[in-house]
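User: Quick sanity check before I run a bigger batch. Here is a single chain. Can you write out its predicted 3D structure?
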Amino acid sequence: MNAMTGLGTRIGNPAGRVLTMRMFFFMTGIGVSAWAITVPFTKIRFGLDDATLGLILLAPGIGGILAMPLVALLMARFGSRAVLVVCGLFFGALLPALTVAPNVPAFTALLFAYGVMFAGLDISMNAQAVVIESRASGLLMSSFHALFSLGTLSVAVVTSFLLRLGLTNTICALLCSVLCLAIVSRGQRLVPPAEDLPAEGRALAMPNRATFLLGLCCFACFLTEGAATDWSTIFFRFSRGVNIASAPLGYAGFAVMMFGSRLLGDRVAMWLGKAHVMRIGSLIAAAGFMLAILTPYEVTDVIGFGMVGLGIGNIAPLVFSAAARVKGMSPTASVPAVVTLGYVGFLIGPVIIGFVANLVSLPFALGLDAVMMVAISFAANAVVTKA
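Assistant: Done. Predicted structure follows.
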């Protein structure tokens, strides 16, 4: 049976599904940005060095990796909507808890739970998005991910403003939590199990060559996104000496340009071609890292991280769309496999950055990420995989 059987059929209330899906991507961006801003506060609160912080950041990675097989099985059994709603509830509730953990062990345990919930949220959300896009008349994946970027950007900018007004990071995280939970309450508007990804084949399967290559591209892209999420604020605060209230502006530059690139990404991909978008984007991201590393000015550093966001913005959406068209694998197996490898990059990558930063320096670690982005430009043709 063709892996795409069932993906071409019409879903009920398509406009409502698309709007709700965008809201869930927005919610995920809120949660990730709230966590990114919590990182420097946690470093200061517990007096952590880069290596120790990097080690603590292993907790969500381990939690997420251990959750991956269970998430795939739960999606095959209950559908991606149920997994998305349950993980979204716990994901939102954890945000303020992370800011008030009484000690390092408690904080690490909460991070482990955060990683488990983010894994389920990320895989099930992209599985839902694949279904909706595959049954639409054109590309939608970049626009979905644009709302994720809008969520991260909104929180970065608003939190910076609220911190300047004197609010605590805990209050800001609580506000983010309330908004996340309000969006999750609309989960019943998403695609139900009867219209979900076709469930033929095994829920767990070894990735084939095409899936593995897409997974590596996703790994590199998400590692870069994780580096910007977890380390851009640290870079501005401790490598450039920017005050704590302004330090999130580097991440804001990254988020706003990622949002802009994804907002137009579907049209650009149809105009230039998917492979060209990925190839050019990875080189722009590499150049952005080098600009931030080599120039000691706050403005050029913000521009550099903005270039990183512009460059990688459309890589993951293109990879996810291609994952549903891989020959020889059901989308219920290929999509989670690719998302899983990307997720590993997002969570494990910042840990690697931390260890390298402690051994050499944070700018050197970010430079290695730039080299990796150049390397994946040679695999750009992977995103035109056809079923």
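The longest helix spans residues 14-46.

User: Great, the batch can go ahead then.
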